[in-house]
Amino acid sequence: MKKGLFHFSGSSHLFPHGINWVLCLLLLCPVLLAAKVPNDAQKTKVTAGVLSNFPPQYTLDDDGTPQGFAVDIMNEIAARARLQVTYVVYDSWPALLSALKAGEIDMIPNQGITPERQELFSYSAPVETFGVSIFTRADRTDIDGLSDCAGKTVGVVKMNVGEQLVKKCPQTIPQLFDHPEDALFSLLSGNVDAVIYPEPVFMRLARTANIDDHIRVVGKPLTEIKRAISVSRNNPELLQQLNPAVAQLIASPTYRRIYNRWYGKPKPFLTSGRVAAFMGAILLGAVLGMGIWRYRSLIRINLQLAEQNKRRQEAEQALRLANDTLEENVKKRTRELETALSDVKTLTGLLPICSFCKGVRNDQGYWDKLEKYICDHTDAEVTHGLCPECFKREYPEEFAHVQSNNR
């Protein structure tokens, strides 16, 4: 009988054929799991130093955990190189570089390669290349290159390649800063005329502060810098683990995804979704505004109608009162006229008058003098006098005397 791994011998009467297979699988499971599932204990533990604020390479989230382009790249490389990375945060480049020189950390993710640094550290294959450019304020037009910086104050960051580049123009007045943010706002405030710094990092800082339209890049980049993982010269084994993983990552879609995340242009504020939402909000506001306007208009019209109705009712009431008063006055006047008319005595019909004595025959057949008849049948009173004809006829002498006096 041939011998092999996990081969069991013995009578088939003691172990049925199906049970043999079950026992074999149970024995193989731990081996297969050990081969499939990586154990953190099998990974090489390393320490990486990063800056607290050097976007987009290194930043800290709200919990103080390092993040950024260099951190994401380092994590992907570590997964491929079977490294377990612990991050240590430093506040400045001098402190970070001193920590690597002293052996306090094992590496720095994505550090710019310069001849001065190559004398101190070893570097992996490059993971990024970027230009170092001159920045001025957006409204300034008198600087088009490094030669135009003669006699002007140029800001550079300590331990950055700009510190070496500014020396190529001895007439410039360099001003050193500990952090790129200080250089950026010193440029905006007018304390320096220009800043020399890696273009992607500086523009990222400006976009984050929402002031990227206040600065501009002058001319072509002064130089190109490759960035790679720096390690101590005393640790070539770590470098050998990193380089194959770097090559795998650079050729993968993961690298492009990470690059676009940290270096891609920010999405415009007015995206199609936001435009649609904005237009919807405007439409909704217009509908609500029209509804409120219509509601207020109806209320105003109703109030006006109520006021007009009130005035109409008051006018009608006043008209009714006036009509009642008029009717009452008419009735009163009518009564007065009726009373007055009832008091008036009139003579109607034919009066029988004597042709000679002018007597009037009454209803009883007696003849009364005209004066008495009028007094009895009217409210008038009769007085006696003489007309001129009768006065002349009856009293001629007195008449003649009166006539002579009147002359």
Note down, in words, how this protein is organized.
This protein has 13 helices and 13 strands. With 407 residues, the protein is α/β, with parallel strands linked by helices. Among the domains are: 40-263, D-Maltodextrin-Binding Protein, domain 2 (3-Layer(aba) Sandwich); 360-406, no CATH class. Strands 5, 6, 7, 8, 9, 10 and 11 form a seven-stranded mixed β-sheet that branches. A two-stranded parallel sheet has the order 1-4. The protein has a two-stranded antiparallel ribbon with strand order 2-3. α12 (388-394) crosses α13 (396-406). It is rod-shaped and about 180 Å long. The termini are far apart.
- What does the average pLDDT come to? 83
Oligomer: single chain
Distance between the termini: 199 Å
Task: Specify the CATH homologous superfamily of the domain at 40-263.
Answer: Periplasmic binding protein-like II
Radius of gyration from CA coordinates: 63 Å
Uncertain residue segments: 1-17
Secondary-structure element string = HEEEHEHEHEEEHEHEHEHHHEEHHH
Content-based structural category: alpha/beta
Largest sheet: 7 strands, mixed
Task: Please tally the β strands and state the result.
Answer: 13
User: What's the level 1 CATH class of the domain at 40-263?
Assistant: Alpha Beta
- How many helices does DSSP assign? 13
Instruction: Give the DSSP E fraction (strand runs of 2 or more residues).
Output: 15-25%
